[in-house]
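Morning. Coffee machine broken again, so started the prediction first thing and wrote up yesterday's gels while waiting. Chain of 148 residues, entered below exactly as on the submission form.
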Amino acid sequence: MRPLIRNAYRCMLALISLSIVGVAAPARAEIPNRPPEKLQELATHIFTGKVVRIYSTVERSSPKAEMTFRVAEIEVASVEKGEHEGRLAYVRFWKRRHLGSDPPPPAHYGHRGVPKVGAQTRVYVMTEEDGGYDVLSPNGFAPIDPQQ
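Came back before lunch.
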């Protein structure tokens, strides 16, 4: 192969390789899901029940990120761990959203598997200093089959 063609070929390969690397989705440093045994161990309280309402507020945490803070109102069917008085429990959780066209930075992007209003759920929470219940990240909600 002639040197000019060989150099052009190498440049093309380099450009193709760089474009593939640039297009590939960046890895996000998400927290892996915790197994049920670990959720059980970490939780101060575990509730089962129906999601009655979800309240939310959105805040811009930086020019390229917004945070959605939510509270789920749970009609408690049973308390599997801890003590709770009353038929309702309010549990807090959140979600981060990257804004902009650049790749999102590595970060924890919030809770996954959030139930919809009307769903039966098991929720693993930690009591915080203010007395509120925070859902364990990232998968502190677990669906319950209504047939069980």
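The first strand starts at residue 45 and ends at 62. Going to sketch it on the whiteboard this afternoon.
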